[in-house]
Amino acid sequence: MADSNKRTVKKEKKSIAEGRLYINASFNNTLATITDPEGNVFQWTSCGRMGFKGTRRSTPFAATSTLEDIIKRAIDIGIKRLKVYVSGPGPGRDAALRVLRGARSIDVTMISDITPIPHNGPRPPKRRRG
Predict the structure, then answer these.
(1) Cβ partners under 8 Å of residue 50, min gap 6
(2) How many structural domains comprise the chain?
(3) Could you tell me the end-to-end alpha-carbon distance of the chain, in angstroms, rounded to an integer?
């Protein structure tokens, strides 16, 4: 009797035409995040989430399969255009850009490097006494 009164609420899918793709390529992993233009996260994935463990996470092949997965997720959301922001010095950085160049179903409007670079660096050590 109680089961007949239950309502099922269907979660509606949000569809956006333009989004941002943030790629963080560290030495140990490659993370990819899709946001809308305001910065609200829609999808994310990483090499570890794709099933790569240990040192295989830091390979260009792992980054390639991670980017292929996030592009497939972007197409499912309904994204047509992407602005890409790449950060970090890792080995998955170039492989990620190669995957984006080969993706014909999504229009990449901009690729920007947002890796933080120190302008002056830390304070040097004190002069040696002697």
Answers:
(1) 62, 65, 66, 69
(2) 1
(3) 90
